[in-house]
Specification:
Elements lengths: L9 E5 L2 E10 L3 H9 L1 H5 L3 E4 L6 E6 L9 E9 L3 E10 L3 E14 L2 E9 L6 H19 L17 H5 L2
Antiparallel strand pairs: 1-2, 2-8, 3-4, 4-5, 5-6, 6-7, 7-8
Length: about 170
């Protein structure tokens, strides 16, 4: 894909820290968008798959589009208010060996048949933004493609990174 991609993320200061927030809209009921971000088969179309029992408060997420050697990461389910809010936390590594905690917040709202998804990730280490921001732009655009009849595989990460890194570095 060789189209020009525009960064949409913004920095938000919230009571529990600083976040990068991105928004996408869908001409679909909120329940349908909720399914796209929580049902394993629908999630696998654009980002990855999860396994485990959410009733335990934890799931394992396997990113499907980041190469062959990606291990599943454990995510704690911090809040789930279907179909409006999902909060997850992962404690793993960033890059080769840098410890990182990722707080993800997904908020949905529907007005007149249009659902808005606001996706936010905590950004405790601002240096991570130049990599993380373009990554979430890529994945959220894959979500839009999957939910609007497009082909997520036609979306090329090379159009996002390094092109959007400078924007996120300055946030």
């Amino acid at each position: 894909m060789s189209t020009h991609i525009t960064a949409t993320g913004r920095k938000e200061r919230r009571p529990d820290g600083t976040y990068i927030a991105l928004t996408r809209t869908f001409r679909a009921p909120i329940e349908d968008v909720w399914a796209a971000i929580t049902e394993p088969d629908r999630l696998a179309r654009w980002i990855g798959r999860w396994s485990g029992d959410p009733a335990t408060g934890k799931i394992d997420v396997e990113m499907l589009y980041e190469g062959d050697d990606v291990e599943p990461e454990e995510y704690a389910i911090d809040a789930c208010d279907a179909p409006r809010r999902l909060e997850l936390t992962s404690r793993g590594t960033y890059g080769e060996d840098t410890p990182a905690t990722w707080h993800l917040k997904l908020d949905l709202a529907e007005t007149d048949g249009v659902t808005t998804l606001t996706f936010a990730q905590s950004m405790d280490d601002p240096a991570m933004a130049e990599n993380v921001g373009p990554g979430w732009e890529y994945y959220l655009d894959r979500l839009v493609a999957a939910e609007t009849g497009g082909d997520p595989a036609a979306i090329d990460f090379g159009g996002y990174y390094p092109a959007l890194a400078g924007y996120y570095r300055t946030l």
